[in-house]
Amino acid sequence: MATDGSWRNWSGEQRCTPVRTVRARSTADVRDAVLVAAADGLPVRAVGSGHSFTSIALTDGVQIDISAMDRVLAADVESGLVRVQAGISISRLSDVLAALGLGMENLGDIDVQTVAGAIATGTHGTGARLANISSQVRAIELVTGTGDVVELTAEGDPDGLRAARVSLGALGVVTAVTLQCVPAYVMRGVDTTERLDDVLATLDERNADHRHFELYAFPYAARALTRTNDVVDEPASPPSRLQTALRQGLLETGALGAISELGRRVPPAIPRLNRSLVRMAGTSVRTDRSDRIFASPRHVKFVEMEYAYPRDAAEPALREILATIERRRLAINFPIEMRFVAGDDALLSPAYRRDTAYLAVHVYRDMPWDPYFRAVEEIANGYGGRPHWGKRHFQSAETLAGRYPEWERFREVRARFDPDGRFVNGYTDRVLGPVQTAPVAA
Which of 227, 191, 206, 210 is nearest to 108 (CA)? Predict the structure, then answer.
């Protein structure tokens, strides 16, 4: 929050000035804020870490900041069920779970999001046999548009839970989440470079042989980076501070940032710079507790679009994107990330009922992204792609409804929990349409 009362997201591109901001510490705080907003006729949006690239959190009404709701409320080590306040960050949650001898089955590579934000946007990691983070949710506490506090479970309200697991904040404010955790485990992560054609020819084998596999394909480069993470029966051996600093300084902070900035200043040099960066990457091996292997720091600012494709579209879609970049000579100096996720049953999950390949594209800060992203979205449309709800896209309710078999069921749940359209903004109006109202009885 800026000193003038405005708010901006992580990348600095999305900004708003709410009428008021409520820094909630409890479910009661959230409920009171919603009731006061309703009395004043103001819309409400919840916000946590602000790591979405879209305008999903913007409001000129009441902003409820849940980032101080960061406590673990209950933990049953035997069953693995852990109840947390919704504003807890994935990083803090991981530390608490590790102290309990627990971990998350799968995570993405960013750990600064709040749990509520990560599940609301369908955030995922990689692992062809593993689903997204929201699939690990067993119960959700929600403050509805009428100020009611409801507990959603598969037994008590299966449609409500499946809608709330990926909700875009359109059902209410999530205040607590019960997660299914697993016994803590150690992973070995191997990053290396290989010929892109060789990797694409063996995607099925790599997904079968490794618990987690992902690919980073650089435009204009014949070689790509691969990352495999596998569970090992070994003790964690985290790198020293010096080793961490050197690794991050070379690739994740220093080299990537410097080369991206040079490419921004001298766009014709980008093809050569991309090839140089891949050559610099080399091979690294880490063995550490799972969450530390999953997470990667993000110090270089960028804008991102990500689409969920049917699994068998991974290779052809990637090749189309790379060919488009080269044909149009687009100045793209960030890699295209490919990850794999199992299907799930959350109503608006981008991986709903289909095994999925995610392709994420990025543009370095202060560089034009619109032409590139529109070209990528056109490719995604051809494969029935579904956008990551927290990343840039140009879709609308009209273009999206047919891609989600239970779109109408979600609308019904939304109308039930937010009958007056309290949790709306420009983003929800565009991608979900207006709140469905019940017909008036004759």
Answer: 227
